[in-house]
Design goal:
It contains 13 helices and 12 strands. By secondary structure, it is α/β, with parallel strands linked by helices. The protein folds into 2 domains: 175 residues, NAD(P)-binding Rossmann-like Domain (Rossmann fold), CATH 3.40.50; 158 residues, N-(1-d-carboxylethyl)-l-norvaline Dehydrogenase, domain 2, CATH 1.10.1040.10. Helix 3 runs parallel beside helix 4 and helix 6 crosses helix 10. The model has no long low-confidence stretch (mean pLDDT 93).
């Protein structure tokens, strides 16, 4: 029988709530920390109600507390960071103080959060992770699971450790969890998609299938992807195959035109082409995006490694302009992004 782990999920939104509710439904004990006492009380009253892929689940919220009410003593074996990237970076040092000796912090955000936290806090505390689970929060504790995705976890230093296996088996009682010996490569593979699919769709206010069907949209997709892959290789990473092979056929620093490349792009469209970008939902809700940890990370790392990233840098500027409501999502915003490459 799987040994239990004293677990707290920091954040009880779509992803954190989904993982925690499905784990709790197996009889496992799990606690939650949320932003403030009012949020904690709303969640306690509502409980969790999960629908969609994977079947329905209804469980009490159980042990849920405001961040300021989490006991400041080391008693947890696992803290899952299920917040936005900015909050994860801010709260992670505090969360490590809740961990027992040998306890683990598991960030599951998009972008480079796992790498950044490992550099900040050390690999002995941080187990890297990312999520392919799709979920939508409709209200306090009311979550719709949108796909049959999984968590992917592993050591940023490489290999599959005993703790990765232990965390996989524990959380895997509730949702599918896979361990990989090349998490760094997997993070880059997802980062490449985030940089060229999610952010461009958000800027255009369209699905990938809609914007990539235009000459400008296609050119910006190719250039953003080319830059990201060049930075990945320069950093020493080996991008790992996930939904598609992360290295386009015949790639030599730039996308190679031809039937093989079109077939590769078609596989990406099959996986992501009709999804509404999560960053576009952030725009609609007036939320700060995770752009600085996605294209921003690529641009900053490229600068340090001497790899030009003009398109990714321009994407960051455009997303910030939309956040500040200086412009609105529109396909026409892709035009200056295409010119950014030409001016490199």
């Amino acid at each position: 029988m799987q040994r239990s782990m004293r677990t707290l999920i920091l954040g009880a939104g779509a992803l954190g709530g989904l993982i925690g509710a499905r784990l709790a439904a197996t009889g496992a004990r799990v606690s939650f920390a949320v932003r403030d006492r009012a949020s904690a009380e709303r969640l306690r009253q509502a409980g969790f109600r999960v629908s969609g892929v994977g079947g329905p689940v209804a469980v009490p919220a159980g042990d849920v507390a405001a961040l300021d009410d989490v006991p400041a003593r080391p008693e947890l074996e696992l803290v899952v960071l299920a917040t936005k990237a900015q909050e994860a970076m801010e709260l992670a040092p505090r969360a490590t103080r809740w961990l027992t000796p040998g306890g683990t912090l598991l960030p599951i955000q998009n972008g480079a959060v796992s790498r950044l936290l490992t550099d900040l806090l050390g690999g002995e505390r941080v187990l890297g992770g990312l999520s392919n689970l799709g979920a939508t929060l409709h209200g306090p504790g009311e979550i719709e699971q949108r796909n049959a995705g999984h968590l992917l976890i592993g050591e940023l230093s490489g290999g599959i450790s005993d703790r990765a296996t232990r965390v996989r088996d524990w959380l895997g009682q509730g949702v599918e969890v896979r361990a990989t010996g090349n998490l760094s490569g997997a993070i880059w593979s997802k980062l490449l998609i985030n940089c060229s699919v999610t952010t461009l769709g958000a800027i255009a206010g369209r699905t990938m299938r809609a914007y990539v069907g235009t000459p400008t949209g296609r050119a910006v997709f190719d250039r953003a992807y080319d830059e990201g892959l060049s930075v990945a290789f320069a950093s020493g990473a080996r991008p790992e195959k996930m939904m598609v092979d992360p290295i386009p056929p015949g790639w030599d620093g730039r996308a190679a035109s031809g039937p093989e490349h079109e077939a590769w792009l078609a596989r990406i469209l099959d996986a992501y082409g009709d999804l509404k970008p999560s960053m576009l939902q952030d725009f609609e809700r007036g939320r700060v995006t995770e752009i600085d940890f996605i294209n921003g990370y690529v641009a900053e790392l490229g600068r340090r490694l001497g790899v030009p990233t003009p398109v990714n840098a321009a994407i960051v500027e455009t997303v910030h302009a939309i956040e500040q409501r200086r412009v609105a999502p529109d396909p026409e915003l892709l035009e200056p992004l295409a010119r950014a490459w030409g001016g490199a």
